[in-house]
């Protein structure tokens, strides 16, 4: 495996060489749990789950950390507007994110630390920065001195003269320079706070991730991931405070593109979000995951219903082929991906190129089935399973077909549908076209699609697939 990744900091492709051979340490900026998850949030989860699966497939031991920001100005504001405790508001939406990740087949992280559980580590990091001359306390607040860190701006390309942190600082809060960013916010009446040497308060967003990344992955680790909107100021500030404290921090920086709607980034502030539950009324979870993961992870994904449905139809063709082979031979073991697929994935996880190889295998596999070449079709179906498995969408994985728990229901469905198809076949033999069409319409109304093939009628329902005897 020679994996090359685009490193945002170096602005070039770099061969992945982990700190420890055979082990990959990854930190992904997770959710600020202020509201319900939308599909823009889930794109980073899906994109870097694919990275994780590709590393695991090559026997890497992957230590994958995804944090939860459970204390933040936005959380406090939203909770206050709703008249609910901030901690209950955060916990409710954290559960919603967990469920969305689960529905889309995103593997649980090795650890999912909450910011509020790591105040001690944050206080220790601030003390190191103050001791090294990179931070200062003022009126109960603690700020990072941006001018003390000459390398500031190397990730984002911002000139230090043009830096604007986007923080609202009131007169009298003690900032020496408007470019300095907040590490610790002094307690305000009615807001949650924790004790510190500089007075009660709560952590700033940037500090949280640096402290948690160091605690779980050490002072230097392999990969830091997140959305492209986090490059500045969040990730820029993480680098500054961690490096200034003496940590090497992340060696590779990977950023996924936005999901946009009408050319605008999907965000709650713009009111143009599509919640995961609402999109799952339109397509299945596996189809939504396929859609979010089918573009290059670093590219912008412009949402449209047509694109979503096109992706779902594309996945259904792959799924249908695998189920055709299952019906023919009874079992399809996971095979090995092709060299072309591996080459695409090794080149910065180029999923569109990888999917072209899946489509090729599906096309050849269907031709083999039609020609009666079962062994060839079985081999190709095994390849398809392996390749789609890396993308987290193998049709036969229990996540998508319900595992063995639904076998009794599947058997009953098989019997009922096949009985209907026998009635249709008899009606066609009797040239009773109206009755034959009525059976087809009845099945279609129940969500069952019937396809006539040279071998007889085949049917499909969601993840199920069957064939009339």
UniProtKB/TrEMBL annotation:
<keyword id="KW-0067">ATP-binding</keyword>
<dbReference type="InterPro" id="IPR024909">
    <property type="entry name" value="Cys-tRNA/MSH_ligase"/>
</dbReference>
<feature type="short sequence motif" description="'HIGH' region">
    <location>
        <begin position="31"/>
        <end position="41"/>
    </location>
</feature>
<feature type="binding site">
    <location>
        <position position="268"/>
    </location>
    <ligand>
        <name>ATP</name>
    </ligand>
</feature>
<feature type="binding site">
    <location>
        <position position="209"/>
    </location>
    <ligand>
        <name>Zn(2+)</name>
    </ligand>
</feature>
<dbReference type="InterPro" id="IPR015803">
    <property type="entry name" value="Cys-tRNA-ligase"/>
</dbReference>
<dbReference type="GO" id="GO:0006423">
    <property type="term" value="P:cysteinyl-tRNA aminoacylation"/>
</dbReference>
<dbReference type="InterPro" id="IPR015273">
    <property type="entry name" value="Cys-tRNA-synt_Ia_DALR"/>
</dbReference>
<keyword id="KW-0030">Aminoacyl-tRNA synthetase</keyword>
<dbReference type="InterPro" id="IPR009080">
    <property type="entry name" value="tRNAsynth_Ia_anticodon-bd"/>
</dbReference>
<dbReference type="GO" id="GO:0005524">
    <property type="term" value="F:ATP binding"/>
</dbReference>
<keyword id="KW-0648">Protein biosynthesis</keyword>
<dbReference type="Pfam" id="PF01406">
    <property type="entry name" value="tRNA-synt_1e"/>
</dbReference>
<dbReference type="InterPro" id="IPR014729">
    <property type="entry name" value="Rossmann-like_a/b/a_fold"/>
</dbReference>
<dbReference type="GO" id="GO:0005829">
    <property type="term" value="C:cytosol"/>
</dbReference>
<keyword id="KW-0963">Cytoplasm</keyword>
<keyword id="KW-0479">Metal-binding</keyword>
<dbReference type="GO" id="GO:0008270">
    <property type="term" value="F:zinc ion binding"/>
</dbReference>
<feature type="short sequence motif" description="'KMSKS' region">
    <location>
        <begin position="265"/>
        <end position="269"/>
    </location>
</feature>
<dbReference type="Pfam" id="PF23493">
    <property type="entry name" value="CysS_C"/>
</dbReference>
<feature type="region of interest" description="Disordered">
    <location>
        <begin position="450"/>
        <end position="469"/>
    </location>
</feature>
<feature type="binding site">
    <location>
        <position position="29"/>
    </location>
    <ligand>
        <name>Zn(2+)</name>
    </ligand>
</feature>
<comment type="subunit">
    <text>Monomer.</text>
</comment>
<feature type="binding site">
    <location>
        <position position="238"/>
    </location>
    <ligand>
        <name>Zn(2+)</name>
    </ligand>
</feature>
<dbReference type="GO" id="GO:0004817">
    <property type="term" value="F:cysteine-tRNA ligase activity"/>
</dbReference>
<keyword id="KW-0436">Ligase</keyword>
<dbReference type="Pfam" id="PF09190">
    <property type="entry name" value="DALR_2"/>
</dbReference>
<protein>
    <recommendedName>
        <fullName>Cysteine--tRNA ligase</fullName>
        <ecNumber>6.1.1.16</ecNumber>
    </recommendedName>
</protein>
<comment type="similarity">
    <text>Belongs to the class-I aminoacyl-tRNA synthetase family.</text>
</comment>
<feature type="domain" description="Cysteinyl-tRNA synthetase class Ia DALR">
    <location>
        <begin position="340"/>
        <end position="401"/>
    </location>
</feature>
<dbReference type="InterPro" id="IPR056411">
    <property type="entry name" value="CysS_C"/>
</dbReference>
<keyword id="KW-0547">Nucleotide-binding</keyword>
<dbReference type="InterPro" id="IPR032678">
    <property type="entry name" value="tRNA-synt_1_cat_dom"/>
</dbReference>
<keyword id="KW-0862">Zinc</keyword>
<feature type="binding site">
    <location>
        <position position="234"/>
    </location>
    <ligand>
        <name>Zn(2+)</name>
    </ligand>
</feature>
């Amino acid at each position: 495996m020679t994996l090359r990744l685009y490193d945002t900091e170096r602005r070039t492709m770099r061969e992945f060489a982990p700190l420890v051979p055979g082990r990959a340490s990854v930190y992904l900026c997770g959710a600020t749990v202020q509201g319900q998850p939308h599909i823009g949030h889930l794109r980073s989860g899906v994109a870097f789950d694919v990275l994780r699966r590709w590393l695991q497939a090559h026997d890497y031991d992957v230590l994958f950390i995804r944090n939860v920001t459970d204390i933040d100005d936005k959380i406090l504001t939203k909770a206050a507007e709703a008249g609910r405790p901030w901690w209950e508001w955060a916990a409710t939406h954290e559960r919603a994110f967990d469920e969305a990740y689960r529905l889309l087949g995103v593997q649980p992280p090795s650890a999912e630390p909450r910011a509020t559980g790591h105040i001690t580590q944050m206080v220790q990091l601030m003390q190191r920065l103050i001791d090294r001359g990179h931070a200062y306390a003022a009126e109960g607040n603690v700020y990072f001195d941006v001018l003390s860190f000459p390398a500031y701006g190397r990730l984002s390309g911002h000139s230090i003269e043009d830096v604007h942190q986007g923080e609202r600082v009131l007169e009298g809060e003690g900032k020496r320079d408007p470019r300095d960013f907040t590490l610790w916010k002094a307690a305000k009446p009615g807001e949650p706070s924790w004790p510190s040497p500089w007075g009660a308060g709560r952590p700033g967003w940037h500090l949280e991730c640096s402290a948690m990344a160091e605690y779980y992955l050490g002072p230097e680790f392999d990969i830091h991931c997140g959305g492209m909107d986090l490059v500045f100021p969040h990730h820029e500030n993480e680098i500054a405070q961690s490096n200034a404290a003496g940590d090497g921090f992340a060696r590779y920086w990977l950023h996924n593109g936005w999901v946009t709607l009408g050319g605008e980034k999907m965000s709650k502030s713009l009111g143009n979000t599509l919640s995961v539950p609402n999109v799952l009324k339109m397509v299945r979870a596996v189809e939504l995951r396929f859609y979010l993961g089918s573009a290059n992870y670093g590219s912008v994904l412009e949402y449209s219903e047509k694109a979503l449905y096109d992706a779902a139809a594309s996945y259904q063709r792959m799924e249908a082929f695998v189920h055709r082979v299952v019906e023919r031979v009874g079992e399809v073991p996971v095979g090995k991906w092709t060299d072309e697929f591996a080459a695409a994935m090794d080149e910065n996880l180029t999923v569109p190129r990888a999917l072209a190889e899946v489509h090729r295998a599906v096309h050849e596999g269907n031709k083999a089935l039609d020609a009666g070449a079962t062994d060839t079709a079985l081999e190709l179906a095994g390849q398809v399973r392996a390749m789609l498995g890396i993308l987290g969408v193998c049709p036969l994985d229990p996540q998508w077909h319900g595992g063995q728990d639904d076998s009794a229901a599947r058997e009953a469905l098989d019997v009922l549908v096949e009985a209907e198809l026998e009635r249709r076949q008899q009606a066609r033999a009797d040239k009773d076209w109206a009755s034959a069409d009525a059976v087809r319409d009845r099945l279609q109304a129940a969500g069952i699609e019937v396809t006539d093939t040279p071998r007889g009628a085949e049917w499909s329902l969601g993840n199920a697939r069957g064939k009339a005897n």
